[in-house]
Target: S8 family serine peptidase
Amino acid sequence: MTRRHLEAVVLAAVVVTAGTGVYVVDRAPTPTATFVGGTASGEQPTRPSVPTRIRALHQRGITGANATVGIVVVTRINADHPELRPRIVERRSFRRDPAGQPRGRHGTAAALTVAAIAPDAELLVATVDTPTDARRAIEWLTARGTDVLLVPATVLGAPGDGTGTVASAVERAADRGTVVVAPTGNLARNHWQGRLTPTRRGLHSFGGDVRMRLLPPVGAGTQAGGRVQARLRWNGSAYPRDLTLELYRSGASGVTRIATSERTRTGSVRVERLDARVRPGDLFVAVRLPNRTVRRFEPLPVRIEVTTRRHRLLNATPAGSVASPATAPSALSVGAAAPDDAGLAPYSSRGPTPDGRRGVDVVAPPTVWAGPRDGTSAAAAYAAGAAALIISEADTSSPERVITLLCDTAVDVPPAGADAESGYGRLNATGAVERIEAPKGRTEDSQPRTKPHTRC
Model:
């Protein structure tokens, strides 16, 4: 297989399984990534319905006034939307080709969710294409004095320990006093991780089987097919050799290899990308090791991860599927609550992170959303609006204080206690506001806390 070092990256708005998300994907110098999902910009989404408890806060005059929310968007935003026109105070594009901004509803939907929760907050919007664009956008929004920064994007293939271009920019923004909110991702059913286990066939064993079967996206028929996009990631320091991700078809004539991956990242974190268009059928992926390096046929001390963008994995492992920039230590990492608020949405990514952190701070309802499908981006936008409400009422806008309020007042969901699936529980904007209101006159340091921590 011919290997190329792929240096360019592009952001893509896509619909995955049961959620809408924005992803950073690798591409070759000749672009192979496409923008999938969303609708034409001529269609104007309506303002999402506001939950009763949030409306009650608005009726008390708690509307996010005097708070500013910065939003990093990928798809073209409809700044002339009647709900957004009076709220957007500044816009800037960091794309090389601003006119080439892809059409879609994701950016507009994120802004509408924030405006629905915090209707008097001012919005600043930055449009981006690459992680470098996103870094510059975060720096610009931070320099503009933004109180809350929403980054509704997931970086596929980035290090999971909170480093990387976008996650590092998030850390710097938090250091300068900005509350940064990011979705955990919609990858719980599209992710597998485990120890690299060689077999005598030269393939990795996924818990006893060298095949990882692909399932179609939810609602997309009974067979996998169409565009298949997958990533293989591993620690290059622990295993400094090549691994290859391969796509196979199983049929009446036997098993046929139909696509192989290309390298997109080298160094301490290595990434292989597979991108192919195939007809529907019985498809599976496999991880190939170079035979000359295999000496022991037992699990090696190195973890590998396989992640797909659209297709579900038959034996997915939700644990560890949280993605950058939500993996940044200072970000408020937000997952999606189940529709009945009793647990976690099945697609919502989980922790822990590779460096042992929980990875999820809270979950929020993803239903306050004007896009075609909800997801963790919708949940994060809800949380960003809630943070704006807190800042408009509190005497401080420090990230630690705001995030601590949101975590301390969250409603626990099973299993009991803070965990890597739902963090501290379901976000409770009303409880957070009431915490800072009662009793009046109490200083920040003397306000009671229900958990002994300075932030999530």
The chain is about 20% helix and 25% strand.
